[in-house]
From TrEMBL:
The keyword Membrane applies. InterPro entries: GLUT, MFS_dom, MFS_sugar_transport-like, MFS_trans_sf, Sugar/inositol_transpt, Sugar_transporter_CS. GO terms for cellular component: sarcolemma. It comes from Chauna torquata. It catalyses: D-fructose(out) = D-fructose(in). GO terms for molecular function: D-glucose transmembrane transporter activity; fructose transmembrane transporter activity. GO terms for biological process: D-glucose import; dehydroascorbic acid transport; fructose import across plasma membrane. Pfam families: Sugar_tr (PF00083). This is Solute carrier family 2, facilitated glucose transporter member 5.
Length: 547
């Protein structure tokens, strides 16, 4: 009887709180994702295409200063720093998530974060004119801090604003914009667009030509938008757009009510986001979550790691984040160029094929936005890691046999495409959605700090270790990634619950059983003081009528 009543209450509250995609929610989702997540993806791949020209600039700057060419080992070290400082900065950014979102709010943190991006964009865009490569390395650290904050705060912000029936779809949108950022950087980085070395000389030529009237403004436009410094500097534009538009949208209602205690502002924010005035059900659910966590307060990372009631949630996000980054996605993209060349694609055209893989990534992540609410999180995670596991195994075989069996090179291409599809629908977007859903307000910032730190540390580790793995193991490297995908998939199958269309408190109750933690009856039934008082009054009326 008790469980039936709980189910009935849960279903009633579910029907009452079902939301729709309003214009306000759609706009704040797009602005947050474009202004922040887009730049994470953009800066992942922006230095890949112009790498030879940037290394030439490093060497030429060194010659101008010292009169001798740069030692090859030193140049390799500098370029390794340029690449690896981005994920290392991401790790530092993840450590800043908790203090910033608790003190400045989710929206406030995103607005402050834009200053990092704009500063880095200016430094990178002017680095060639200033004849300094050191600021590029510094700017990569700053952009990493920006991306570390953005990759955690945007899913948290949007997950707290979305109604439960849209939380998964809205939560995948940041990952969609990450893939769009990667694709845009690949397109703009083509040799024929901005992936070239025309920056400084043409900019100076244009300035002088315009000043002395020797060239036309149209020539100025063509000349100025050329070269890798412009390619790197473009990253500041989305931040400027977000800085100008996001202040017109509300803060996270859960932050306003539960952490700031301002019910009126929270109610107003919900009305704006939902498009209707009756938001009592959601306010009630937030109040109940607030009451259930009053004893705990805001959890620190240390408290989170030692708190038995969140043990399996913590283990789950660590496993999913490690699986996401250690599953070989960077290795597959690294190998993609040579796989395409072995299949007969000319070296001059490989960059265009690489762009096509980026397009597949975008299309499949877009598909995930539309199917995550119908299929659920578990199915996408299992299918995603399953496809990655299978394609890594077959890819190992194909790469080893392609020198003797002609059609194996085409099988390699198919494996790369299937791997990208698997990662795009499950392994990439869903873990961040799960962090939002598996933790309540008091522990969510600390959970994002842990999950984000694991994400960026694993990213940094793969960047350092993979070249050595590839040199030692060759194509057999993918067997290691296959095993990691398999272990992650088995863990998800046995441990991670389905969170589709459930409130945060309902998910918390599911995980409490796994953690073998008792939840008090009042909390379990999601009743606050007023609801309990009303029930007691009803009982009194019944007893009086019986008398």
């Amino acid at each position: 009887m008790e469980s039936n009543r709980d189910k009935q209450e849960s279903s009633d509250s579910g029907e009452g709180s079902k939301g729709k995609m309003t214009l306000s929610l759609a706009l704040v989702t797009l602005i947050s994702a474009f202004g922040s997540s887009f730049q994470y993806g953009y800066n992942v791949s922006v230095i890949n295409s112009p790498a030879p020209y940037m290394q030439d600039f490093y060497n030429q700057t060194y010659i101008d200063r010292n009169g001798v060419p740069m030692d090859e080992g030193f140049q390799t070290l500098l370029w390794s720093l340029t690449v690896s400082m981005y994920p290392l900065g991401g790790f530092f950014g993840s450590l800043m998530v908790g203090p910033l979102v608790n003190n400045c709010g989710r929206k406030g943190t995103l607005l402050i974060n834009n200053l990092f991006s704009i500063a880095a964009a200016v430094l990178m865009g002017t680095s060639e004119l200033a004849k300094t490569f050191e600021v590029i390395i510094l700017s990569r650290v700053i952009m990493g801090i920006y991306a570390g904050l953005a990759s955690n705060v945007v899913p948290m912000f949007l997950g707290e604003m979305a109604p439960k029936n849209l939380r998964g779809a809205v939560g995948v949108v940041p990952q969609l914009f990450i893939t769009v950022g990667i694709l845009v950087a690949q397109i703009l980085g083509l040799d024929s667009i901005l992936g070239n070395a025309k920056g400084k000389a043409l900019a100076w030529e244009v300035f002088c030509g315009l000043h002395w009237g020797k060239i036309s403004p149209s020539h100025h436009l063509v000349s100025f938008v050329a070269g890798w410094p412009v390619l790197l500097g473009l990253t500041g534009i989305p931040s400027v757009i977000q800085l100008l538009t996001l202040p017109f949208f509300p803060e996270s209602p859960r932050y306003l009510l539960i952490q700031k205690g301002n019910e009126e502002q929270a109610r107003q924010a919900l009305k704006t986001l939902r498009g209707w005035d009756d938001v009592d059900d959601e306010i009630e659910e937030m109040r109940q979550e607030d009451q259930s966590e009053k004893e705990e307060g805001q959890l620190s990372v240390f408290s989170l790691c030692t708190f038995r009631g969140l043990r399996w949630q913590l283990i789950s996000i660590v496993v999913m984040m490690m699986g996401q980054q250690l599953s070989g996605v960077n290795a597959v993209f690294y190998y993609a160029d040579r796989i395409f060349q072995s299949a007969g694609v000319e070296s001059n055209n490989v960059q265009y094929v690489t762009v096509s893989t980026g397009a597949i990534n975008v299309v499949m992540t877009c598909l995930a936005v539309f199917i995550v609410e119908s299929l659920g999180r578990r199915i996408l995670l299992l299918a995603g890691f399953g496809l990655c596991c299978g394609s890594c195994a077959v890819l190992t075989l194909a790469l080893n046999l392609q020198s003797t069996v002609s059609w194996m090179s085409y099988l390699s291409i198919v494996c790369v495409i299937i791997y990208i599809i698997g990662h795009a629908i499950g392994a990439s977007p869903i873990p961040f959605v799960m962090i939002t859903e598996m933790f309540l307000q008091s522990s969510r910032p600390a959970a994002f700090m842990v999950g984000g730190s694991v994400h960026w540390l694993c990213n940094f580790t793969v960047g350092l270790v993979f070249l050595y793995m590839e040199a030692g193991l060759g194509a057999y490297s993918f067997l290691i990634f296959c095993a990691i995908c398999l272990v992650t998939m088995v863990y998800i199958f046995f441990i991670v619950p389905e969170t589709k269309n459930k409130t945060f408190m309902e998910i918390n109750r599911i995980m409490a059983k796994r953690n073998k933690v008792e939840i008090q009856t009042e909390k379990e039934e999601l009743m606050d003081f007023h609801a309990i008082a009303a029930k007691q009054a009803q009982k009194k009326e019944i007893s009086n009528s019986e008398l």
